[in-house]
Amino acid sequence: PTPLWLDCDPGHDDAFAILIAAHHPSLNLLGISTIHGNASLEKTTTNAGSVLEAIGKPNIPVYPGSHKPFSRPALHAPDIHGESGLDGTDLLPKATRPPVTDKNAILAMRDALLAQPKGTPWVVATGTLTNIALLFATFPEVVEHIQGLSIMGGAIGEGFTDAPMSRLAGEKSRIGNVTPWAEFNFYCDPESSESIFSNPVLASKTAIMALDLTHQVLASQAIQTRILHGSIHSTEEPTILRQILHALLTFFAATYEKAFGLTTGPPLHDPLAVAAILSTLNPAFANKHPNQALVFDDKGGERFALSIVTDGQHGKDVSITGQLGRSVATPIDGPGVAIPRGVDLDAFWNMVLQCVQLADDC
Ligand code: BDR
Ligand code: CA
Predict the structure, then answer these.
(1) % pLDDT > 90, the chain
(2) CA distances (Å), origin 163, targets 170, 171, 217, 283
(3) How close is the Cα of 236 to the center of ligand 1, in Å?
(4) What's the complex ipTM?
(5) How far is the CA of 199 from the centre of ligand 2 (A)?
(6) Nearest to 197 by CA among 147, 122, 138, 205
């Protein structure tokens, strides 16, 4: 299995990213670090422990990371994820294993990654990028050592895809989900985001799952039913885990409808960053498992120079003129960031449902 470290801010879609990372038979989840984002660090850490307990993987260690960006206050998203960061169900268990606090999260990531053979481990980031920026700035040897970095974040726009959901609620001028231009994870800590993409060696190993892609991956009613019952036809009482996952999606669907008028189901952003490791974006996996690899559309290896706008203050100028946190992607010949434009949706959902079944069986 491919080793990976997951940095996350659970978070409804982060919870599904954890489930896939922990249960997919081709992945070996080394550990989780948590980050401020959808809710405070304290809450995202509690939520990560609860999710691991619920999915039957309580022994995967959770390390609390950064409370805030270096140069800005932390922002949260209670309108999307509720006050706890993971609202919608009372069935989530408490973690039986407390978060690890006798070792710093950044050191834990470094040690776990360097303990794997060179060129094998992946880092997956589904939250604000403060921890990830610290990791690579503090320990540059980790840049050389990893196989890849997969990030959920950013919004490209300008006809990047033809997908109808790439713009929320059909507003043509709006490509972001927190301002007209900016996606939440990059907006929360634009300086950390920029520090990653301005490192050419790291950028050449990085793939980002931008909103243009993730807004195509909607957890429709039919998907929600399959998550609850395993199949559309089952008449059995759903297990507690399936009830939890279904309740999380129901809550997430309701907040997306309220915030964005979206009635076709919420985008399941974060699992795509894990799925990238199991896909054609990861040649090491795709060459070894040609029949299993998910097909992402990266236009035959298209690469970009990416920069993140860091001018501006949170909450100031959130109109169309405000650019803070915007992702500016320029196609380049040669090494750069991969930004897939599409994914085989059926294969993606089948993979998610397979992992839910594995979690349910364990
Ligand atoms: C991202 O922001 C968070 O609210 C989600 O968990 C996801 O990582 C989408 O913009
Ligand atoms: Ca997230």
Answers:
(1) 88
(2) 11, 13, 10, 26
(3) 33
(4) 0.99
(5) 23
(6) 205
